[in-house]
């Protein structure tokens, strides 16, 4: 979902289901010539043909497929699998391939880059809370922290999943590699997954973290729903969409995780300067992600009359706007470290954010030199996400 800034996807287009089975030449060794007199191997049933669609994905076991056409009766195309010598010895079977392809589709459905951001954010906030109160560390709470992480991933899965269900037409233009748009995952299966994620997340949070955190969790799911689902579909309104993304990924995630961790340690909630900093910083960063997420999607947004800043102001202007906001964010972090040395470690804060800012300037220059091609825009957007991850990685150290 776009709440997680889901426009970027690292999944390679080679996993698209349009790829055709590759014909495997017959061998002419004596052993194979002798095999011509044996009965032909059984043909795959029609229901198994779909399992051959994603041979290029990394989970495929057998890639040697031969295509034969039946000459009697109709002109129905049949497929028979000819595994190489090693694959034959391993005993490849269609069921394992189906399972592998389903696993790959579900993983792409979850939008892995958003999961990384959620996981890094929650781990960084928990680590910060423990650093502030090391005497209260209780390793028996490890399982509770793990439950919290699973609940956050479930919430993330619900939000990005519900967005894909209602964006199939747009995704076929903008992100044809996504599993529903590519035909690798049915809409019915997608609904099952999002409802499972929502139910599992609510159950985990309600059972382990009390009414207040449960309320915050429900608020996040609600905002994710009205962002994508008609008749609300607030993603159509750029300012409202940006505020929702910044609220969920910026404020709710950081505040909720820190609050829940202090509660688990038996402490009342109190803002610390580092946590107030990261919450503010990431909220602004989430706003930048919300602005730049539409850059690779201009073609599909225009086709389906989705109004975004990128369609209104142009790709170049939005790239400059997002870069400018993020540079201001980095400058603010450097100034905070300089004027509050008693709170922050200047030896880490200043050089780290200076390096991040220089990297951003360089990537913006590369994008300009590439004339804002779709590939260059996608690379720029991926770099912004990498900067987002990097901020959480250094956070416990500042």
- Overall, the morphology is globular
Number of domains: 2
CATH architecture label of the largest domain: Orthogonal Bundle
Query: Regarding CATH, which class of the largest domain?
Result: Mainly Alpha
Q: Give the low-pLDDT segments.
A: 1-90
The overall pLDDT, averaged over residues, is 80
Through-space gap between termini: 31 Å
Structural class comes to mainly alpha
Number of continuous helical runs: 16
Strand order of the largest sheet: 1-2
Oligomer: single chain
Report on the biggest sheet. Answer: 2 strands, antiparallel
Helix content range of the residues, please? 55-70%
Explain this structure to me?
By secondary structure, the chain is an all-alpha fold. It folds into two domains: 298 residues, Orthogonal Bundle (Farnesyl Diphosphate Synthase); 91 residues, no CATH class. 64% of the residues lie in helices and 3% in strands. The protein contains 16 helices and two strands. Helix 15 packs antiparallel against helix 16. The longest helix is centred in the middle third of the chain and has 27 residues. It is globular. The two termini are 31 Å apart. The N terminus is likely disordered.
Topology (SSEs and partners):
Layout: H1 30-35, E1 65-69, E2 77-81, H2 85-90, H3 94-109, H4 112-132, H5 142-165, H6 168-174, H7 179-182, H8 187-208, H9 210-228, H10 238-264, H11 273-292, H12 298-303, H13 309-313, H14 315-339, H15 346-369, H16 374-394
Antiparallel strand pairs: 1-2
Helix pairs in contact: 4-5, 4-10, 4-16, 5-8, 5-9, 8-9, 9-10, 10-11, 11-14, 11-16, 14-15, 15-16
């Amino acid at each position: 979902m776009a709440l997680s800034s889901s426009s970027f996807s690292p999944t390679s287009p080679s996993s698209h289901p349009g790829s055709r089975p590759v014909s495997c030449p017959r061998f002419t060794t004596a052993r194979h010539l002798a095999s011509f007199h044996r009965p032909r191997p059984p043909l795959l049933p029609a229901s198994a043909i779909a399992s051959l669609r994603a041979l290029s994905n990394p989970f495929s076991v057998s890639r040697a497929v031969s295509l034969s056409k039946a000459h009697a009766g109709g002109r129905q195309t049949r497929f028979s699998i000819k595994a190489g010598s090693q694959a034959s010895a391993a005993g490849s079977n269609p069921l394992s391939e189906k399972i592998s392809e389903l696993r790959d589709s579900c993983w792409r459905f979850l939008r892995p880059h958003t999961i990384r951001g959620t996981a890094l954010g929650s781990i960084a906030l928990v680590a910060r809370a423990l650093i502030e109160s090391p005497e209260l560390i209780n390793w028996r709470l490890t399982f509770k922290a793990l439950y919290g992480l699973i609940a956050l991933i479930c919430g993330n899965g619900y939000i990005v999943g519900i967005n894909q269900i209602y964006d199939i037409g747009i995704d076929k233009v903008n992100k044809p590699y996504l599993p529903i748009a590519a035909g690798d995952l049915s809409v019915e299966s997608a609904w099952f997954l999002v409802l499972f994620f929502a139910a599992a997340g609510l159950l985990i949070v309600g059972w382990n973290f009390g009414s207040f955190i449960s309320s915050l969790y429900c608020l996040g799911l609600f905002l994710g729903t009205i962002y994508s689902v008609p008749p609300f579909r607030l993603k159509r309104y750029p300012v409202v969409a940006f505020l929702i993304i910044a609220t969920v990924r910026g404020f709710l995630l950081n505040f909720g995780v820190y609050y829940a961790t202090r509660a688990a340690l038996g402490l009342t909630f109190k803002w610390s300067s580092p946590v107030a900093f990261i919450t503010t910083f990431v909220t602004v960063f989430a706003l930048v992600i919300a602005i730049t997420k539409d850059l690779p999607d201009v073609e599909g947004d225009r086709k389906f009359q989705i109004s975004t800043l990128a369609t209104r102001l142009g790709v170049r202007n939005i790239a400059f706007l997002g870069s400018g906001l993020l540079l201001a964010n980095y400058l603010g972090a450097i100034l905070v470290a300089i004027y509050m040395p008693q709170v922050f470690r200047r030896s880490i804060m200043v050089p780290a954010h200076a390096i991040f800012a220089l990297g951003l300037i360089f990537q913006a220059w590369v994008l300009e030199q590439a004339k804002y091609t779709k590939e260059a825009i996608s690379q720029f957007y991926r770099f912004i996400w990498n900067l987002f991850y990097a901020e959480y990685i250094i956070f416990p150290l500042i």
